[in-house]
Amino acid sequence: MSTDLSFEAAEQLDLDDPLQQHRDAFIGSDDPALVAYLDGNSLGRPLRASAERVGSFIAEQWGGRLIRGWDENWLGLPAKIGDDLGRIMLGAAAGQCTIGDSTTVLLYKLCRAAVAARPGRNEIVIDTDNFPTDRYIVQGIAAECGLTLRWIRPAYDGGVTAEDLAAVIGEQTALVLLSQIAYRSGYLADMAGLTSIAHEHGALILWDLCHSAGVLPVELDASGADLAVGCSYKYLNGGPGAPAFCYVRSEHLETLKQPIQGWLGSVDPFQMGPDYRPAAGIRGFTSGTPPILGMTALRDMVELIDAVGIDAVRAKSVALTDYAVALYDGVLAPLGVELASPRDPARRGGHVTIDHPAFRTVTEQLWEQGIIPDFRNPDGIRLGLSPLSTSFTELWIGVDAIRAALGTNR
């Protein structure tokens, strides 16, 4: 990364960026009131194509086909989009991914199924810095099933390492639940290495992909991962409350039994039979009616990433986060700001976190200026850099505004 931290250098980075042309595909990219959007890791911008697709779906599919749409197309969409996700960015062969429910509900389903599949084992391993939903879900399951939680306490500016996991896992471990990218620090975990440790001890491992799906290549099949869950409103730009996805490794599809037995997960939903019999394959992890309208916008980002290539997306992501670290070193570190993310891009996901005691107030001021990062307790600003919609000049403007706000608040 160049040592020239001028605005003109940022403009040149945009001119040299092979993906810069795709920014115009997003609604709001030309909005003068939205000066810099640096929160794409919380909620992605909508695509213009998605506005057209959703409107067309309402008018032509929902309005035109009505109930006939279920038989004609809609019932197959969760598995169809799941297969697309697997092929394009998750490293998963067909028949192992599906769309439906929220991240929280899917986490419960897979966690509960995993501990039931390891009878006689009474421990779940999770880290203290995992996303709150992940921690709350396993706390509830532990209370429900009489299990013990074994806690990993990772480094503040890092995440779970092989040494961390090896120190707490054992013969009583039924399940390990980890995030591939730590939601606060942005640390990128070694999926293959940590999965191997879990398997050496006979445990299943479930990966939370909420901050990695759509920003870097995930290798679920190659890593040996057992289970995974991820949301679709961050780097997949599915919109507020867009449904989550789950992955169940093929060898577990017939042995793991998910606990929420809804009618569309049964072998013959329209038979309306008296007893529940699970459908074969990934559809057995379905419960209720799939959120067709909610998954409609997701398809456009999946198609865009397919066209661009997930490796190119990752390359732009690394370039953006490298630039964020360079701006931190040159502009913010002298003001007492601390870097709370890994410096090594191989261990860093798509966002960079910086800390300062004044950042809660600074974030409020930035939002008033149309500069939108997000704040994370206790003192952190996350710079969430969505590769296909975030520019280098946006990032420069955001960091410069943080510098100016710190000067005002000193």
Automatic annotation (TrEMBL):
It catalyses: L-kynurenine + H2O = anthranilate + L-alanine + H(+); 3-hydroxy-L-kynurenine + H2O = 3-hydroxyanthranilate + L-alanine + H(+). Pathway: Cofactor biosynthesis; NAD(+) biosynthesis; quinolinate from L-kynurenine: step 2/3; Amino-acid degradation; L-kynurenine degradation; L-alanine and anthranilate from L-kynurenine: step 1/1. It comes from the Bacteria. Its EC number is 3.7.1.3. Keywords: Hydrolase, Pyridine nucleotide biosynthesis, Pyridoxal phosphate. GO terms for molecular function: kynureninase activity. Its cofactor is pyridoxal 5'-phosphate. Pyridoxal 5'-phosphate binds at T103, T104, F131, P132, T133, D134, D208, H211, Y233, W263, T289. The modification N6-(pyridoxal phosphate)lysine is found at K234. Catalyzes the cleavage of L-kynurenine (L-Kyn) and L-3-hydroxykynurenine (L-3OHKyn) into anthranilic acid (AA) and 3-hydroxyanthranilic acid (3-OHAA), respectively. Belongs to the kynureninase family. Homodimer. PANTHER family: KYNURENINASE (PTHR14084). This is Kynureninase. It comes from Arthrobacter russicus.
